[in-house]
Automatic annotation (TrEMBL):
Keywords: Signal. Residues 1-27 form the signal peptide. GO terms for molecular function: serine-type endopeptidase activity; tripeptidyl-peptidase activity. PANTHER family: PROTEASE S8 TRIPEPTIDYL PEPTIDASE I CLN2, TRIPEPTIDYL-PEPTIDASE 1. Residues 76-398 form the Peptidase S53 domain. GO terms for biological process: proteolysis. This is Peptidase S8.
Length: 398
């Protein structure tokens, strides 16, 4: 079947079984009402493949040497911010857990860039030599695909978010040879066979059926997180799969509350009802209003204006170094790493958050567009489409 791929507010026509990245690489925490200058991180590719729609903030980027010389902190939220906002036991949990990252194409400097990020924030080294980091192609070997600077930014974003939230977790990077659904799916299956406890996926296309593609995401005992999309109201696959945890997005800002942070729905977060896939059993009691699978389940920071710091040295259109990213491509690896901190993936499934919603911060304001049923696009008390059940308050919901 044909599909219309949608992410970050843009659309790409593609042939059957194709996927678009849902990550956007953009702005640092900004003043309310401001919008940072951004650029797309990937050029249009040939028909039959996805268009990577990451965005980078062009007015906030610095080389590592400049940051070091100034003894500066990179723009954007760092590990301490995320750990504080979500009350995470990042310093003591996650040992023995492996979080896999699946993306397309090769980031040749992935390990070196990861080292820069972790060194900047005082995180323990995660390298091939010490057994913490491993990079493979979709067949499990080292015949890596061709380099792509835009997808390299996405890879660095994903690796850095896992590091920020679960610095004790091991990381497995599986690089698909292209952005086709078949190749990305093969990479997911490869991560599963290589012992991943969690698999994070920061891409999505039009709603589709598990009857066609569920073979890639049906891995009992492994927590699979997927970005809900960045185009606002509207459901995407594989976030709409029955087998995954669909991750929506929020705007996250520090404040003077007892928590120290506040959140609202991010206007770009994907949400809605699948036309094809069965609802999770846990959704029956939360009033989704959907006859089938509802998106999202949980959420985390994704607003480019409250973005996160990322380091990537594979230059794309002249930009590299310390940058600031947003999109549900931030949220999916954040939630994946929280699953790693919890260490429960082998004994639970994606209904678990619905039975433990009291361990989440309920997000009750903001919207991502207009819809016929209010909770599909507007935050409220309890479940809603843009933010699901809410954001992590510790690891009790995972």
């Amino acid at each position: 079947m044909g599909s219309r791929l949608r992410t970050a507010g843009f659309a790409v026509l593609a042939a059957a079984g194709l996927v678009a990245m849902s990550g956007t690489a953009t702005a640092a925490p900004a003043q309310a009402g401001t919008t940072a200058r951004t650029m797309h991180s990937c050029a249009t590719v040939t028909a039959g493949h996805a268009h990577c729609l990451a965005e980078m903030r062009t007015d906030v980027h610095r080389s590592n040497a400049a940051v070091r010389k100034a003894a500066a902190t990179p723009s954007g939220y760092g590990p301490a911010d995320l750990q504080s906002a979500y009350k995470l036991p990042s310093g003591s949990a996650g040992n023995g857990q492996t979080v896999a990252i699946v993306d397309a194409y090769d980031a040749p400097t992935a390990e070196q860039d990861l080292a820069v990020y972790r060194s900047q924030y005082g995180l323990p080294a995660c390298t091939t030599a010490n057994g913490c980091f491993r990079k493979v192609d979709q067949n499990g070997g080292t015949n890596y695909p061709r380099k792509n600077g835009g997808w390299a930014q996405e890879i660095s974003l994903d690796l850095d978010m896992v590091s920020a939230v679960c610095p004790n977790c091991h990381i497995l990077l599986v690089e698909a040879k292209s952005s086709s659904f078949a190749n990305l799916g093969a990479a997911v299956n490869r991560a599963a066979t290589m012992g991943a406890d969690v698999i994070s996926n920061s891409y999505g296309g039009s709603d589709a059926s598990d009857a066609n593609y569920g073979q890639y995401y049906n891995h009992p005992g492994i927590a699979i997180t997927v970005s809900s999309g960045d185009a606002g109201y509207g459901v995407e696959y594989p976030a709409s799969s029955h087998y995954v945890t669909a991750v929506g997005g929020t705007s996250l800002r520090a404040d003077s509350s007892s928590r120290g942070w506040s959140e609202s729905a991010w206007s770009g977060a994907g949400s809605g009802c699948s036309a094809y896939n069965t609802a999770l059993s846990g959704q029956s009691g939360v009033g989704t209003g959907c006859g089938k699978r509802a998106v999202a389940d949980v959420s985390a920071v994704a607003d480019p204006n409250t973005g996160v710091a990322v380091y990537d040295s594979t230059a794309y259109q002249g930009y590299s170094g310390w940058m600031v990213f947003g999109g549900t491509s931030v949220a999916a690896p954040v939630i994946g790493a929280v699953y790693g901190l919890a260490g429960n993936a082998g004994s639970i499934d994606n209904n678990y958050p619905y039975a433990h919603a009291s361990s989440l911060f309920d997000v009750t304001s903001g919207s991502n567009g207009s819809c016929s049923t209010s909770q599909w696009c507007r935050s409220r008390t309890g479940w809603d489409g843009p933010t699901g059940l809410g954001t992590p308050n510790g690891v009790g919901a995972f």
